[in-house]
Write a structure and sequence with these properties.
129 residues, alpha+beta, 4-stranded antiparallel β-sheet, 2 helices
Length: 129
Amino acid sequence: MAAGEGCRNYVVVPTSGGRYDVHLKKRQRVAVYWEEEVSEVRRCTWFYKGDKDNKYVPYSETFSEELEAAYMVAVTLDEWKKKLESPSREIIILHNPKVRRGLVVVLLASTDVPSVLLRLSALPFCCSF
């Protein structure tokens, strides 16, 4: 094993003023000073907010990557209104963010009510939820 190779495979980042450690490879957040259930951390760019939710929730890493790929194709080719199916079987239709002040507006077919997906490109990780 080369020098420093083990360090690259085990990255821990202190969060919340050092009260929690995030183990990046394991995608886990662990309390440092007390016993608490380990929580999941997702690397994510795409978030959604349900009808009854008061905060944005990250999609799974896999679906977030799928959404990002579809979004990049839409941006590159300027071809919008692409339909995708979410893991919860809702139909997501991407619209041009220039029209909606940078937010990606979608129509969820199950409700026929416009909803907003949030795309955060500056934050590579979302804390636990």
